[in-house]
Amino acid sequence: MTKTIFITGASAGIGKATAKLFANKGWSVIATMRKPEDEKELNSLDNVTLLPLDVTDREQIIETTQKALALGPIDVVFNNAGYALMGALEAITDQQLVRQMETNFLGVVRVTQAFIPYFREKKAGLFITTGSLAGLMGFPVSSMYDASKWALEGWSESLSFELNQFGIGIKTIEPGLVATEIGTKSVIASHPAYETLLSKFLAATAPDKIVSTAELIADVVYQAATDGKNTLRYVCGEDAKTMYAQRLAVGDEAFREGIKQMLADA
């Protein structure tokens, strides 16, 4: 029987790569995005259905969930929609910080909440979320982005105890730097007092430092969806694996000192 995955943020990057991979693997794909009318690639695939979804719109979340479930059984929900808000906290407006949390954190929470009754009723289902290495450790001039990803970590771990008793899984994908449009779509808030720190950090995360493609991360999403394991976190990308292992080995404070030294030497 054909399985179905529901994906948020499928217009680019990891979301689009995942939609294409699952479609090629014979899954039915419900790919959601804010403007499906602008999509020029996924709409040509026979087993992909496009639906509109802005994860900051609570009414549309409920409406699109109902539309998706009306199409047939759903096995996996991949909460992928998100973007990066960079810059010193002092430079960020209240509107910007609220939108970051509304998209990256509350959007995931609300989409998940909308699907839980369905999964609980059928005693099966899996939620996968695009987290980040920035949800496992903090980086400079990205406090709100990191906060949104750290929030997902605690939320997922806590929620796993609620969901597992009903046969529902929850997993988080933890990539490092990925060659996706999130870089070009990042919102960068500038402040003269932090200009040096911001420029050094942006240089440290420049495109030539990127080691993972969206397709590589999509492979990990597929692994998480099909391996049958009750694993909470999938750290992926060689940079993420190396940095996370280093932090665990040296401890939080020594690792923080290493980040500060790296930027000082830059």
Element string (H = helix, E = strand): EHEEHEEHEHEEEHEHEHH
The amount of beta strand, in percent, is: 15-25%
Helix residue percentage: 40-55%
Class computed from helices, strands and strand pairing: alpha/beta
User: Could you tell me the radius of gyration in angstroms?
Assistant: 18 Å
| Major sheet characteristics | 7 strands, parallel
Counting DSSP H or I runs of 4 or more residues, the number of helices is 8
CATH homologous superfamily - what is it? Answer: NAD(P)-binding Rossmann-like Domain
Count the beta strands. Answer: 11
Average residue pLDDT: 94
Strand order of the largest sheet: 3-2-1-4-6-7-11
In whole angstroms, the N-to-C terminal distance is 54 Å
Number of domains: 1
CATH architecture descriptor text? 3-Layer(aba) Sandwich
CATH top level class name: Alpha Beta
Please, could you describe this protein's structure?
It contains eight helices and eleven strands. With 266 residues, it is of the alpha/beta class. Residues 3-176 form the Ketoreductase domain. It holds the Pfam family adh_short. InterPro entries: KR_dom, NAD(P)-bd_dom_sf, SDR_fam, SDR_oxidoreductase. Keywords: Oxidoreductase.
Topology:
Layout (H helix, E strand, L loop, with lengths): L3 E4 L5 H12 L3 E6 L14 E5 L5 H13 L5 E4 L5 E3 L6 H29 L2 E6 L12 H22 L3 E8 L2 E2 L7 E3 L5 H10 L7 E2 H13 L6 E4 L1 H13 L1 H14 L1
Parallel strand pairs: 1-2, 1-4, 2-3, 4-6, 5-9, 6-7, 7-11, 8-10
Helix pairs in contact: 1-6, 2-3, 3-4, 7-8
